[in-house]
Amino acid sequence: MVAKKTKSAPEIKVPNKEKVEAWGMSSFSLSPVFRPETEEEIKELFVWANHTGTKVALRGGGCSYGDASTNTEGVVLDLTRFNKVLDFNLKTGVMTVQSGARIKDLWETGIENGFWPPVVSGTMMPTLGGALSMNIHGKNNFKVGTIGEHIKEFTFLTAKGDILVCSPKKNTDLFYSAISGFGMLGCFLTVQIKMKPIYAGKMKIDPVYVRNFDELFAYFEEHYKTSDYLVGWIDAFASGKSMGRGQIHKATNLKEGEDPDFPGNCLLERQHLPSRLFYLIPKKWMWILMRPFSFNLGMRLVNLAKCIASILVNNKAYYQGHAEYAFLLDYVPNWKFVYKPGSMIQYQVFIPKENAKQAFREIFTVCQERGIVNYLSVFKKHKPDPFLLTHAVDGFSMAMDFPVTKGTKEKLWPLCHEMDEIVLKHKGRFYFAKDSTLRKRVMESYFPKENLKRFYSLKKKYDPKGILQTDLYKRVFLTEN
């Protein structure tokens, strides 16, 4: 199929449609997918889209749980082939990459030279462009902020075709809005990121069992100043005085000279995730072994077993490689297939610290009352950041994985809408990288009005013809619901 050539538009061969799936498998689009390898190809596609009125969705690693990079009524621009590491200054720690480079490329390039990405997600597969569009956070958000706070400079192709250099001091407005702008203003081209020096191939990990929300919050408040990373796993099935029980993993970087094996244990072959569990079972089989437990009673037993195991190892410190600690979602390949033949969504909320404990109690309670309990809950501490459409608060987040089946979908969306009201009541926020259920009314209720006004103004300035759209953008910003 060849697109019609207009007076000024280039002639573009449009690929056949293919299935473009959300990471959680709960939604998809059938769309032509372009996979450019150069800046010139990306710019040409933008010129063509502006002249033809074609709607374009930018897509990186496809790691957003919902419809943030699908496009039912247009085309998808997949940046994963635009992925070169262009430069790495070992004196400054600044790495320059094309926006399709993955977090995997950053850490694999940096670690043998004593550097690690300052912020990583639970998987190493997002592209840096996608990570900036969603302004991802990590288990160290309370300490170092979001990934956007470690960007020195980027070049940016606006939707109308201009290439601009942006930094905290140059094109500042665009810098702080493109980061967090979920791909609606233009495309990141090259990015300079300040990497973090490390002095050991492993970190000290302290596993701590907590019996309820009170102990969970108390530990985070007491220990966050002496931690480099903190994350909590919560048993969402526990109720009453045990609600909020789970395990915390506190990680601390070793200081210079504390690791006798450094830098030898930073070699890639000693950092890559192991392919077998207990040196015997191929990890690619693990989701198959987990699948028989993928129902409420099964997951209740799995959570209980994890609690018992947490008690047994409570306060028994150990050492773990950076990739092993950081990329839990990659530890079991294709673990999401546990939810097949259904799918899953993640519902993640961010609540100010003064309201968080009560809000999470109400959320867990309403889930238990409705009979739809999430199978995996992850708890983190956060601090505010300066970006326009930020999800961060001075408080805490809870990310909750819900199975989606024929029997639960009709009840799950209303439950999410019920939880929305709890979040709004407690002045909380949501996260576009994880969202599948957000409505325009809710979005307009939690974002400051001045932020939304500024976003719409920038959208009009840099994308006057509205070519950049995704199913998420249409659902949350264009559809009255």
UniProtKB/TrEMBL annotation:
It comes from the Bacteria. The keyword Iron does not apply. Keywords: FAD, Flavoprotein, Membrane, Transmembrane, Transmembrane helix. Residues 25-198 form the FAD-binding PCMH-type domain. The chain crosses the membrane at residues 174-193. PANTHER family: D-ARABINONO-1,4-LACTONE OXIDASE, L-GULONOLACTONE OXIDASE. This is FAD-binding oxidoreductase. The lineage of its organism: Bacteria, Pseudomonadati, Spirochaetota, Spirochaetia, Leptospirales.
